[in-house]
UniProtKB/TrEMBL annotation, chains A, B:
The modification N6-(pyridoxal phosphate)lysine is found at K194. Belongs to the class-V pyridoxal-phosphate-dependent aminotransferase family. Its cofactor is pyridoxal 5'-phosphate. The keyword DNA damage does not apply. Soluble hydrogenase catalyzes both production and consumption of hydrogen from suitable artificial electron donors or acceptors. This subunit catalyzes the tritium-exchange activity. Residues 27-329 form the Aminotransferase class V domain. GO terms for biological process: glycine biosynthetic process, by transamination of glyoxylate. This is Tritium exchange subunit. Keywords: Aminotransferase, Pyridoxal phosphate, Pyruvate, Transferase.
């Protein structure tokens, strides 16, 4: 049946009808006063969402483009950086940093485990000459469903005093509390097709004062992603290059919805849905890939033992028209991932769990009484 | 009155209803087989539109991002390049090239005049050591309404034999005939909010075999705009990073419309509308900024003498809800620009001219019998 597709992947995430329709409006000129008003409203709401008084700059790019901007604007070739690697995205930022000539030291953990803040601490504390210029960390590692302890890693960065912290918050912003000013995070990048509840196409970079200081001496060549012109234009409610006007309409509508819901409600909803997903998966007798204490509130990875992950995805799609994500790289075929961020409700999670129970039953998964998953999720909802 | 706005600017251009509604569909996963089919269709139609058998790669970026990719993938710091400068965009590519460490020689013409192909020829013919690595040319200079003689410049490039030709075709593709394979153009960049009839947010780069050869030795650092992964993914009907799914829906719909109309009809429509605009402007006694022989078929710039350009724009917007573009940089306040590319019909042009006549009449422009502009445009239409 057409038009019944349900996205439970960690991006793109479902988009509210009001956002979809906002995007279907005729574009207007991006240099018009009307569009200037939209930019002004959006930029103000982005600061609210990022819990910062500093700049939040909007780029026409995917999340990877935003992370590239987050790295190249503040560093120079040869700079020493620490890069947290415990999943596909951490690996990508290390690879990207090397592409721009940075001297990368990987601080690694097994995929499915969180990064050890003390490993950063040891390197940072030993860096008495202050040669480390930046620590690059993925907050919520989408590929594994692991949440890294950004706050603890950041404390070591703050003790170091000199180096910047650059954060991939692609599946954090709008889903998981990341108080940028309170934690003094220097650069935080994200993308639109996640917690923002809008389609892909926009990248965001929050830049704090210490990062702007570093910008002055950074020499990696740049033009399209040079953030200074974005900052200068934002101060005039404008953009240096043509913005994706219809996506900006969508962003405006989505940010209005988020303000109406409120940050604490948004974070509580993601936490509740995550707990429900995890309790349901446990009740169904499926192993969770990430431990409870390092669980992302954006995506839950499951590593089934008695059934094949790809067969679960296949039945979920064919019979119930629900898209789950597969594993990436070495996790391909080993895990499946339930995305639950952005425009996701308790009902969506129940729906997904009920369909997953039916799927597991069909695939002959043993030791599961049908209903236990939904019951476990229900208990979480009734407690919150 | 809300909802009556009419865009007659050179981007963003009006978007057909079918494209707007296609964009309002729920996103699907970009790694799904369904989206793979969309990518396959779109890529095939992009090759048709670009009149090429080579790769046409789609980036999540504005046109400037596409031009950056067109430059940095094929050159190395210190490389000598010639850059055509006769407007804001030519100047931008020179500035961008310098930002990436290229040794730029500007081949300039006055704003409003076209580049002299022989000026390129003299430099290329004198380059017996073959030190020139690329010639960077803006085909249709949006800031002045000037069409540069790309075919003639390219002939000198082909005589040189070694250097690449890199073309900004942002307001050419889908509006002006630019036969990429026939002319052996190496790299051609464009953006979605122009002839493509979709909102901004997508950039396109057509890359020929000689450019791919140059790619192998090019050393400007890159990651997000590294085109090799885009090519590799395109061969598998995929993308290296999350594409802007809803804009891709729009692109799919727009390309279907373009195929239905046919390339020769599209080009003839743009040429007809351009001639109508220019004849009407002449009949109204307003000076055209670009000479007939170098007129872009995307935008017509007018340099009024008896009335102020900004007052024309203001009345056009307030009374008739038609957006015209102003002048940029040193042309600010001196010219106004009528955009007529993409989803533009004879009727749109007549509407714009009629409103312009009324505006000029209101502003006290002398020596104009109301009706002469519409009459002149009508004559053009009846002749074609």
């Amino acid at each position: 049946m057409d038009g019944k597709h349900m996205l439970m992947i960690p991006g793109p995430t479902p988009v509210p009808e009001g956002v979809l329709l906002a995007q279907a409006k005729h574009p207007i000129g991006h240099r018009s006063s009307e569009f200037g008003e939209l930019i002004s409203e959006v930029n103000s709401n982005l600061k609210w969402l990022h819990q910062t008084e500093s700049d939040v700059l909007t780029l026409t790019a995917s999340g990877t483009g935003a992370m590239e901007a987050a790295i190249i604007n503040f560093l120079s070739p040869g700079d020493r950086v620490l890069c947290g690697c415990n999943g596909k995205f951490g690996d990508r930022w290390a690879e990207m940093s090397e592409a721009f000539g940075l001297q990368v030291e990987r601080v690694s953990a097994e995929w499915g485990q969180s990064l050890d803040p003390d490993a950063f601490g040891a390197l940072l504390d030993a860096d008495t000459n202050r040669t480390i210029k930046a620590v690059i960390v993925t907050h919520s590692e989408t590929s594994t469903g692991v949440l890294n302890d950004l706050e603890a890693i950041n404390r070591y960065v703050k003790n170091h005093g000199r180096c910047l912290i650059i954060v991939d918050a692609v599946t954090s912003v709008g889903a998981i509390d990341i108080p940028i000013d309170e934690w003094e995070l220097d650069v935080v990048a994200s993308g639109s097709q996640k917690g923002y509840m809008i389609p892909p196409g926009l990248g965001f970079v929050a830049v704090g004062p210490k990062a702007w200081d570093a910008y002055k001496t950074a020499t990696i060549p740049k033009f399209y992603f040079d953030l200074a012109p974005y900052r200068k234009s934002a101060a005039k409610d404008s953009t240096p290059f043509t913005p994706p006007i219809n996506l900006m309409y969508g962003l405006q509508a989505a940010l209005q919805m988020m303000r109406a819901e409120g940050l604490s409600n948004i974070f509580a909803r993601h936490e509740r849905v995550t707990r429900a997903a995890r309790e349901a998966v446990k009740a169904m007798g499926l192993p969770l890939f990430a431990p409870d204490e390092a669980a992302s509130r954006a995506v839950t990875a499951v590593e089934p033992a008695t059934v094949e992950a790809e067969r679960v995805r296949s039945v979920m799609k064919k019979q119930f028209d629900i898209a789950l994500a597969g594993g990436q790289n070495q996790l391909k075929g080993r895990i499946f991932r339930i995305g639950h961020l952005g425009f996701v409700s308790d009902r969506d999670l129940l729906t997904c769990i009920a369909a997953l129970e039916a799927t597991l039953h069909e695939l002959g998964h043993e030791n599961m009484t049908p209903g236990v998953g939904v019951a476990a999720a229900t208990r979480v909802f009734s407690m919150s």
